[in-house]
Design a protein that fits this description.
The structure holds two protein chains of two kinds. Chain A is an alpha+beta fold. Chain A contains two helices and two strands. Chain A has one domain. Chain B has 13 helices and 13 strands. In chain B, strands 1-2-3-5-4 form a five-stranded mixed barrel. In chain B, strands 7-6-8-9-10 form a five-stranded parallel β-sheet, with helices on both faces. The chains are: A alpha+beta, B alpha/beta.
C-alpha cells in the first residue's frame, strides 16, 4: 500500500464504492471492502497533504547539481 | 474676390477618395521594420513600418491578427500586405494591414516543415508513445529560464492549485545558440537523476527564430527519449513547435502547463470525499437492509411466541401419555378380573376345600399321598393333613 500511486489508490477507491453500491456483497465482504475504502481515501488524502511546499532551483556547482531555494524576483518586468 | 474655403473634413474626404481610386494602393506588399508597436486591448495592432529613411503608419485590425504565425514586436523585419487609405480624423494615410509575415522566415519555416514531416514519419509524434501525466506528481521539474514571467506564472498557478507543491527549476537558456544543447542536457539530467515525476518545458512567446531551439531535432529526440512525461508550453497558443508535437502533452501557455501538471488539491479532496461518501452511504444502506431483514425475521411468530409450538407439542405428548396409561390400566384390570375368575375356579377344585368338610389326607413323612392301605405298614409314622394343619400319627 505504501508504494501505491494516487491514481491507483483513487481508482481502487472508485471501484470499491461501485462494488459496495452494487449490493452484490455479503455483509462480511461489505465490511471488509468498506474498511479498505476508508483506508484508501485516507491514503489519497495523505498523498495530497504530506507534501511540503518547496520551490527550488538546481544549480551546477563544480560539476554537481545543487538544490537551492528559489525566490521569485517580483520586480521583474512582465513580458 | 470672395474666398470659398472648404472644411478640413471636406479636404480629407477628398484626399481619401483620390487615394482609394488608385488601383495600385488597393493592394500593396511592403517590407520594413516594425517600430512603435502597440497591441491595443481591443485586439487591434498599431505600429509604424520603417526603413532607413522613411516610415508609414500601419494598423492591423483584430479580425486579421489571428492569422499571424508570430508575435510582432519592435525591430522585427516584416512584410505586410494591405491597402493604403486615409484616416480622415487625423489626416494621416496609413496601411490597413490584412496579413503580415516575418521576413527571412521562409527558410526557417521550410526547414521546420521538413523536420516536422520527417519526425512525424518516424513516429516521434505517435499518440501511443505519449506517457500519461501523473495525477498527483510529487515533484514537478521545470525547464525554462530562471528569469521572466514564465517561471513566475508557473509558480503562481502551481501554488494556487496546490499550496504544498514541490517545484524544481532547472534553468536553461531558451533562445540563442547553444540553447537546444542545454535543453537536451536538462532533460537528460532530469531523467538520469530522477529529479521529477513530470517535466514542464516552457518558454514565453517570441519570433520563430526565438522559438527555434524548440524546433531542433536534438530537442525533439531528447523529449521522445525522456522516461519522465513532458508537458511543453512554448510560445503563445498559436505557436506550434516541434517540441509541442513530441511532448506527451502540449499546453497552450506556461500557466496552462502548470494547471495540467499540478492537481487542484481542493478539487481532488472533494473527489476523494465523494468516493468516501459513496462507500459510507452504500454500507449504511446495506446495514439498513440487513436491519430490515432482521426485523422481519424477528416479527415472525416463531420468535414472537417461541414457546407456543413447544407447548402444543407438550400437550399432545401429555395426551399420548394419558392414553398409554389408560390402556395399560385397562389391560391390567382385565388381567386381574381374569385371574380372580380363575382363582375362584381353582378354589372350587382345590382338595383343601374338601378338607374343610372333615376329610383328611394321609401322607408319608416324605409328603407322599397314601392312596391305598397296601402302602402302609404297622407302626409306620404318617402325617395327617387336615384343614387347619398337620399332625403325626402311627399306624396300629
Amino acid at each position: 500500500m505504501e508504494e501505491m500511486s494516487f491514481e491507483q489508490a483513487m481508482k481502487n477507491l472508485e471501484q470499491i464504492a461501485q462494488e459496495l453500491e452494487s449490493g452484490n456483497l455479503n455483509l462480511e465482504e461489505s465490511l471488509a471492502k468498506f474498511e479498505e475504502g476508508m483506508q484508501l481515501s485516507k491514503k489519497c488524502n495523505e498523498i495530497l497533504e504530506n507534501a511540503e511546499k518547496k520551490i527550488t532551483i538546481l544549480l551546477e556547482k563544480e560539476g554537481k547539481l545543487e538544490e537551492e531555494n528559489f525566490v521569485l524576483n517580483n520586480n521583474e518586468n512582465q513580458d | 474676390m470672395k474666398y470659398q474655403p472648404i472644411t478640413v473634413s471636406e479636404l480629407n474626404t477628398y484626399i481619401k477618395g483620390k487615394i482609394e481610386e488608385d488601383a495600385f494602393l488597393e493592394q500593396v506588399l511592403v517590407k520594413g521594420e516594425i517600430s512603435n508597436f502597440k497591441h491595443h486591448y481591443t485586439g487591434h495592432m498599431y505600429f509604424t513600418l520603417k526603413d532607413e529613411n522613411c516610415l508609414i503608419k500601419c494598423v492591423m485590425f483584430k479580425t486579421y491578427t489571428n492569422t499571424l504565425n508570430f508575435v510582432p514586436k519592435d525591430g522585427a523585419k516584416v512584410m505586410v500586405l494591405g491597402k493604403v487609405s486615409v484616416f480622415e480624423r487625423d489626416g494621416v494615410y496609413q496601411i490597413y494591414v490584412r496579413a503580415m509575415q516575418q521576413e527571412g522566415i521562409g527558410d526557417l519555416y521550410a526547414e521546420y516543415e521538413k523536420l516536422k514531416a520527417r519526425l512525424e514519419q518516424e513516429g516521434l509524434f505517435a499518440q501511443e508513445h505519449k506517457k500519461k501525466i501523473p495525477l498527483v506528481p510529487k515533484c514537478i521539474g521545470v525547464l525554462t529560464s530562471n528569469t521572466g514571467a514564465v517561471i513566475r506564472d508557473i509558480i503562481n498557478v502551481a501554488t494556487r492549485r496546490n499550496p504544498n507543491v514541490y517545484i524544481k527549476l532547472l534553468p536553461v537558456p531558451v533562445q540563442g545558440t547553444g540553447a537546444a544543447q542545454k535543453i537536451v542536457a536538462g532533460i537528460q539530467t532530469m531523467n538520469e537523476q530522477q529529479l521529477a515525476d513530470v517535466i514542464i518545458l516552457a518558454r514565453g512567446g517570441g519570433s520563430l527564430e526565438d522559438l527555434w531551439p524548440f524546433n531542433e531535432e536534438i530537442v525533439a529526440r531528447a523529449i521522445y527519449a525522456s522516461k519522465i512525461p513532458i508537458i511543453s508550453a512554448v510560445g503563445h497558443e498559436t505557436d506550434f513547435t516541434i517540441a509541442d508535437f513530441v511532448a506527451d502533452l502540449r499546453a497552450p501557455t506556461p500557466s496552462a502547463a502548470a494547471e495540467l501538471a499540478v492537481p487542484n488539491v481542493a478539487e481532488m479532496k472533494q473527489k476523494i470525499a465523494i468516493q468516501n461518501n459513496r462507500c459510507k452511504q452504500a454500507l449504511k444502506k446495506e446495514l439498513q437492509y440487513m436491519q430490515l431483514r432482521y426485523e422481519k425475521c424477528m416479527s415472525s411468530k416463531c420468535f414472537q411466541a417461541p414457546l407456543q409450538k413447544i407447548n402444543e407439542y407438550r400437550m399432545i405428548l401429555d395426551m399420548h401419555v394419558k392414553q398409554i396409561e389408560n390402556s395399560i390400566q385397562k389391560s391390567w384390570q382385565q388381567a386381574k378380573t381374569e385371574m380372580l375368575k380363575n382363582i375362584t375356579r381353582l378354589d372350587a377344585l382345590s382338595p383343601l376345600k374338601t378338607l374343610t368338610r372333615g376329610y383328611a389326607i394321609v401322607q408319608t413323612k416324605q409328603n407322599e399321598v397314601i392312596k391305598s392301605v397296601k402302602q402302609l405298614k404297622t407302626g409306620e409314622e404318617v402325617q395327617l393333613l387336615l384343614e387347619d394343619g398337620k399332625k403325626n400319627a402311627k399306624i396300629l
